[in-house]
Amino acid sequence: MYGLLNGVRVIEGASFIAAPFCALSLAQLGAEVIRFDTVGGGPDFHRWPRDPSGASFYWEGLNRSKKSIAINLADPRGRELAAALVTAPGEGGGIFVTNYPVTGFLSHDRLAARRADLITARIMGHADGGNAVDYTVNSAMGIPMMTGPADHPNIPVNHVLPAWDLLTGSTAATSVLAALISRRATGLGQEIRVPLSDVAAATLGTLGQVAEVLVTGRDRPKIGNDLFGAFGRDFVTGDGRRLMIVAITSRQWSGLVEALNIEAGVATLEAELGVSFAVDEGLRYEHRDRLGALVEHAVSTRSATHLATRLDEAGACWGPYRTLSEAVAIEKPFLPEGGLFTDVDHVSGHTYPTPGYAASFLGLQRHAPVRAPKLGEHTEEVLASVLAMPSHEIATLHDSGIVQSSGAHA
Amino acid sequence: MYGLLNGVRVIEGASFIAAPFCALSLAQLGAEVIRFDTVGGGPDFHRWPRDPSGASFYWEGLNRSKKSIAINLADPRGRELAAALVTAPGEGGGIFVTNYPVTGFLSHDRLAARRADLITARIMGHADGGNAVDYTVNSAMGIPMMTGPADHPNIPVNHVLPAWDLLTGSTAATSVLAALISRRATGLGQEIRVPLSDVAAATLGTLGQVAEVLVTGRDRPKIGNDLFGAFGRDFVTGDGRRLMIVAITSRQWSGLVEALNIEAGVATLEAELGVSFAVDEGLRYEHRDRLGALVEHAVSTRSATHLATRLDEAGACWGPYRTLSEAVAIEKPFLPEGGLFTDVDHVSGHTYPTPGYAASFLGLQRHAPVRAPKLGEHTEEVLASVLAMPSHEIATLHDSGIVQSSGAHA
């Protein structure tokens, strides 16, 4: 939590990862983010992972630092309330992050008729409105056919990290802030559409992979755990630990050779092949099997502890393979001294290390992360502060079931 | 390319993916991005994928829409020039995106001594300055131990998409714009540090996975191509095509059941197990093997074409498995009519579909993507426009080898 976006108010009407992640980023940068959900919770309210009692760690993670208002969106009066929140006045207001369909009561045009300078960031599956999620986009873009062991070329391997969701959400956050900067200069709002499949396609273009397949006429084959285009893969130490070792830069390569004392073997191979591995990482990739054998032997005859010291001293680039439970116990970013994670008491009843914003602003105070709200925890507060609604009207909305409060602060 | 950030000037001194991707996003939103490289190119100038002649599609992809100035950074006069560019005056200037080390001639403090309101976004491996790249962060965070076939629990599977690099770059872009908004309100600059391993750790916290392992005490096992926490995996059609089919929402589930005509089988299973799959995606996950058998049978007895129609009509969520070369030929985001990709003539001599910014701003003109520059293509222009350097001084810098021009526009 940083105070960079003080005075900015974002209304989130969304579920799942991309749109809530967008709004989470803005909240962590200091925006007031108000998430509305239908009474009882949206389709992600119980999403796994969850605890044995059913509380969703997923919801609790993606909705930190936000306020929650619960509205009966099946009722026209509830829909009117949601639209009123999105289009409420205020220079820093009028920002809406959503994954609702393009048409309907939360269409940009309908909302912009009420507030002309509205900025809407709409996460979509496909640009044409078609149904897609991270995993169906990933399969369609060819990633699973490049992932996994080289000896199973026709068996796809899905990713487990929803990378397209996350990147789409982050792209939406960048886009919202660019639109806000532009609005302050021009007064104009924006309808921003961020389809998962556009983000994936554009990314593969940016990485040169679209050019690669079109110019070479060939798909990149599966290469197991090898790093494409440079030297890098997993190696097993003499005491049975597994390390990911990478040499992309010249410095990383010279450090690796030095750390492992394989200068002679590398020189012999260079003489045999008539190449130098010092500056061209592509040659290291082309000859990865020969180089890999040298590294493999050296790693397999040393202990993980010894290697860690030697590799670090020599400026090589490596990481251990861990399980996540090992990582949270030992990797620095998770530990309290790093300042990124802080123990937080959550609505689920569990207390666990919870991250702040991933980037650090050195001159600013990093406020502690704020737990996700109970559903409807801020219903009254939001109605009163954003819509300036008197308490008797709020009471009427409650009584008629148009809104619901968690009662947490009754 | 959109004109939202007109008047903003970003200096990039960086290589590889994260920092250049950050600056690319800002360029595509309308900022003037000037990338400086050392004469001859940085460590990413020849990075794979590249064409048979050695031109890097990777560099060409990540540096679109930027200007290039080539400076001899080994010479103190060259280093002075780089620092002068970063700290040049102008309300929209003073924004620096880099992956140079924290200390040294491009340290934030040294630069901020010349321009107090400087915003520096520094991509790092680890927050403590330690060496790390996407792939070593990924292994350390446990992702490869969750990826791949369930029957190889101890064999890691690396990802092939540099998701942490991309997300780190995108986070940096969001952070820069938040810092710019804050600077306009307060006059204050920012040193922003965005370590890959902090981004990865924070993300796993956001997704609820840190809570999951800490509260349950168990690592999430490999589950092959199954989607965690809901229903989804790959299925093979009667004619041998492979589809990713997902049912996270109730709507996606009811659509799938309808499209495949498996209502009776699902009802029988629900009766046997005493559960309803209609609203609880977690139950679909717990019983994925039984449900998967029903879906597998239905998919295996139908053609891909038939299924595509049926699944779309019923509102189910699915995607084909393709190779990337299949995808670029057929998936809508890559096709010219979508407006995202446009044929561009590149410096490599190749013309190929090239993406614009992944998000669409509906009220703005989407300008065509601009090819990456030749190295040093804008050397004179940048020295003249940003540093107001007279031509005889520029000539002297050239003659003494402090700068180099591509000669492209001589």
List key phrases describing it:
seven-stranded mixed β-sheet; 39% helix; 16% strand; elongated; alpha/beta; formyl-coa transferase, domain 3; Rossmann fold; 410 residues; 2 domains; homodimer; 16 helices; three-stranded antiparallel β-sheet
Question: How does this structure look, described?
Answer:
The structure is a homodimer of 410-residue chains. Helix content of chain A is 39%, strand content 16%. The first copy, chain A, is of the alpha/beta class. In chain A, the strands form 3 sheets. A 7-stranded mixed β-sheet of chain A has the order 6-5-4-1-2-3-13, with helices on both faces. In chain A, α1 (18-28) crosses α6 (163-186), α6 (163-186) packs across α7 (196-206) and α9 (250-260) packs across α13 (304-314). The first copy, chain A, starts with 8 loop residues before the first strand and ends in a 6-residue tail after the last strand. β12 (360-361) of chain A pairs antiparallel with β6 (190-195) of chain B.
Reported by name, the CATH topology of the largest domain in chain A is Rossmann fold
Q: Number of folding domains of chain A?
A: 2
Mean of all residue-level pLDDT scores of chain A: 97
Summarize the main sheet of chain A. Answer: 7 strands, mixed
Q: Count the E strands of chain A.
A: 13
